[in-house]
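Re: the 285-residue chain
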Amino acid sequence: MAIEPPPPAEIARAVSLALAEDRAADDITSLNTVPAELQGRGVFVARDSGVVAGLALAAETFRQLDPNVHLSVHVEDGARIAAGETIAVARGPVRALLQGERVALNFLQRLSGVATLTRQFVDEVSGTGVMVLDTRKTTPGLRDLEKYAVRCGGGTNHRRDLVSMAMIKDNHREALAREGRTLAEAAAAIRSAAPGRAIEIEIDAPGQLEDALAARPEWVLLDNMGPGEMREAARLTAGRAKLEASGGVTLATIAAIAATGVDAISVGALTHSAPALDISLELSF
C-alpha cells in the first residue's frame, strides 16, 4: 500500500529553511573552487541497514539550488536497505551537489533513522494486531516529516496536534477536580465545541478506569502501568473504548505489553530518540 507523502508545500518549506540555515547559496568554498560548468554525480549510499525515508526532501534540496540537478531513486521510501546499497543518484552541476550535500543528507539520515527505529518496534509486535503509535514528541517544525517517516517504518500516526484530537491528561484532570467538574462533563463540553472529534482520557491506575469510561471516550490511555494492570484494564474495558499503552516502552518490553490486550502502544522514542541512519554521498565525475 502506498505511503501518503507529506504535503509538497511542507517539503518545500522545510527545505527552504534548511538551505537558508546552511547559507547554501553562498557556499564560499564551492563557489570559489568548483567551475560552474563542471558536471558530476553524487551517489547516496547506505552505510548501515535500515528503512529509507526522505527522498523527496533530497530531491527538493537540489531542485531549489539548481533545477539542472536530477535525482534518480534506486529504492522507494519505506523500503528496507542493506549496508552498501545505493539509495539514489544525483546528477548535474557539481557546485549544486556540494552546496546541497549536507542538507539532503540531514533530511535523509534523520527521517530514515525514524523509519528504521519504527520498523524495529513494529516487527516486535508483528502478528498481534497491535498498532505502534507515534506521539507529539517531535522536532519543532518537522512534525509532518517525522510522522511521515513513522508511516514509512510501518507505524501509525496518532494525535497530530492539540486540535485534531482531544486528550484529557493528568493535569487536565487536576484542573477539573479543582473546579468540581467530572470527566463526563469535560467530555460533553469538548463534544459540544468540536462535534465528531475523538476524545482520549489518560489514567495511571485501573481504579480510575470506570470514571474515564463513563465519559464515553474513543480512547483510554494507560500511562506507565505494569503488564498486570494493563491486562486488568483490558478485561474491565471489554471493548467499550480502545486502549493505548504508553510510558517507557522499549524494544525489550513492547511484545509483553502487546500481549496484555491493549489496542495500541505509543512510543515517543520513535521521533525524539531515533539515531540517524548512516548514509553518505559519494561524488564522482
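Residues 133 and 201 are 16 Å apart (CA to CA).
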